Amino acid sequence: MFLVPRLQQTPGWLSRPDISILRPRMHSLPPANISRPGGTVTLASEGESAGNGATPHPGAADVISTTALKKVYPGGMVAVDELSLSVRRGEIFGLLGPNGAGKSTTVGMLTTRVIPTSGSAVVNGIDVVAEPARAKQVIGVVSQANTLDQGLNVWENLYFHGRYFGMSAQASRAATNDLLERFRLADKKTAEVEALSGGMARRLMVARALLHQPAVIFLDEPTVGLDPQSRIALWEVLGELQDEGQTVLVTTHRMEEADEHCDRLAIMDHGRIKAVDTPAGLKARLGGGASVTVRADGEIEKLASQLRRAVFTTEVQVVDGHVRISLPQAEGAMQLVLAAAQAGRFRLTDLAVSCDNLETVFVKLTGKDLRE
Amino acid sequence: MTASTAGPFDTERTRSVRGASWTAFRAMLLRDFTILDKRLPQFVAGTVMQPLMLVFVLTNLFPRIGQAVGGGGGASRFSSLLMAGIVAQTIIFIGIFSVGTEMVRELGVTGEVEDRILAPTPIFVVAAEKIVSGGLQALFGAMVVFPIGAFVPSTPVYLEVRPIVLLTLTPLACVTAAALGLTMGARFSPGTASYLFGVVALPLSFLGAIFYTWPSLDAVPLLQYALLVNPLVYASEGFRAALVAGEPHLSLFVVYPAMIVSAVVFTVLGMRGLRERVLS
């Protein structure tokens, strides 16, 4: 029997200075779990390949698992269509998609607030549809809107949350003090929540979602409306949580954040998953190219034909006095161009390589049409 | 253990829904009363002002300036029957304005009910807590206005307390009021909340047998029977039976079943309304 201690069940956890000791990192899972069937599923619903498998938590058990999850709203609008998704324990999983892609509906179904039309959703082993009240014990939710309790002050918002989740007064008080300290809100503990800045309010909401030690926390567009400093601070917090083994599902349409912070991403559009992989995997599979811009002394057309011969590439163009080359992969691009230029005895005055990014991948998968 | 979809966490260690609901219910009550405690001066002022003004003008000022009030029975009789009506009205108004407007705000404006909706308990428990908490507030409000009805009038008030009727009817009225408030709160959007006073509270109040007894409407039979759809009529008449000496009132054989039906119907409607607002 392999058991990870449930923090929720151990009110005494706060007496320990480092809660990470209670949350084993995923690579310490025994082989029995690593080889479990389905443990490495990263299939997109349309049958795309699963990517390179170089995922940060290979084989970790799934905390979230959905099968053919579907939501049709009254009026016939299909918000989520046959969605099958697995989120592993300990990963930061990003749901990326344009407005109206079905991200929030998906999170709504996983957090019991949207009732699926069909399909199943299991969170931490609990069927969310059949047992929503029990499922709520193991989830923490940070909504996009500020839903802090305005009748209560900062400290009370956390304290009462703990009490709703069955913590004793003493345990909730201790957890509240600990989290306020950790989220740098201790000096605001008696403040009314209306007086908090957007960044502080969001941090308080994250703290609240964590207070009852959920198996997974859901964050819906957590950085929308935050200034850059607050965004950075929030991702730092999420990074720390990840280090402690906290599973996080985050929806976003900020590509650079998804790229930098998520272990794996699902790109959603029209209620379906277009691809699931690590950010690097997605870029390698669907983007991965680079564009190189070169300037040199001498005849630029000659340089262009030299490069054309050297790199066997599809596109080498002369634009505004420089050569622009599109390469299928970024790796080695610079060496290739330098070598070709040297072979032709060109003296380069400028060389710039820009890699395809997640946005390229995203647009490839979801198109350029404007969404509402 | 073979790893199933359950994963390595032993989910059987989650608490039973029943146990989790009970602790969540108590915590939510504690939350509501923490907030009530913070806003006590506003709550008391808001609760007291309307009945105080009514009782003062109608039963203290009018008799002293010789203004006709109370029909043939005289000022003292009017003060006595109004006493019961004021208690009933206070209870129903706290339901509509305290619970109702709070729910409109929490559901439609701030979304702050979310933390309680996500507490590990079914939605109907959240609704039930709101009804209990609103009912206790209504009870508290009734106790605050009781002395107003008894001592502000300039003429004697003839009370004859029937404790059993009072002790059984009061909780019923309080639950009905809070459930009515929850129903209204879940149905009204922030944009339409202003109609709560004009369209709901005013007609309920003026046609709620507060300033007159239901039997005295014999002279206007159509209105008399039309009024029976108003739950406040039963509350007023019930409190008349429980508090006022020698005043004809609607039979308790009608009052009790009607109050029970009102309480049940509005509780069901309120629970359903909340569920419909927070789940999709």
Provide a descriptive summary of the structure in words.
The complex is a heterodimer of chains A (372) and B (280). Chain A is an alpha/beta fold and 372 residues long. Chain A has two domains: 15-148 and 196-285, Rossmann fold, CATH 3.40.50.300; 289-355, 2-Layer Sandwich (Alpha-Beta Plaits). Chain A has twelve helices and 14 strands. A six-stranded mixed sheet of chain A has the order 6-7-8-3-9-10, sandwiched between helices. In chain A, α4 crosses α5 (169-182), α6 packs parallel to α7 and α9 crosses α12. Chain A is elongated and about 80 Å long. Residues 1-56 of chain A have low confidence and may be disordered. Chain B is mainly α. Chain B has one domain. Chain B has ten helices and no strands. Chain B has helices at residues 17-38, 40-65, 74-110, 114-117, 123-151, 163-187, 195-206, 221-226, 231-243, 252-278. The longest helix of chain B is centred in the N-terminal third of the chain and has 37 residues, at 74-110. At the A-B interface, β1, α3 and α4 of A face α1 and α4 of B.
Secondary structure blueprint with pairings:
The complex is a heterodimer of chains A (372) and B (280).
Chain A: H1 31-34, E1 62-73, E2 77-88, E3 92-96, H2 103-110, E4 118-123, E5 126-127, H3 132-135, E6 139-142, H4 154-164, H5 169-182, H6 198-210, E7 216-220, H7 228-243, E8 247-252, H8 255-261, E9 264-269, E10 272-277, H9 279-286, E11 290-296, H10 300-311, E12 315-319, E13 322-327, H11 333-343, E14 348-355, H12 358-366
Parallel strand pairs in A: 3-8, 3-9, 6-7, 7-8
Antiparallel strand pairs in A: 1-2, 1-4, 4-5, 9-10, 11-13, 11-14, 12-13
Helix pairs in contact in A: 4-5, 4-6, 6-7, 9-12, 10-11
Chain B: H1 17-38, H2 40-65, H3 74-110, H4 114-117, H5 123-151, H6 163-187, H7 195-206, H8 221-226, H9 231-243, H10 252-278
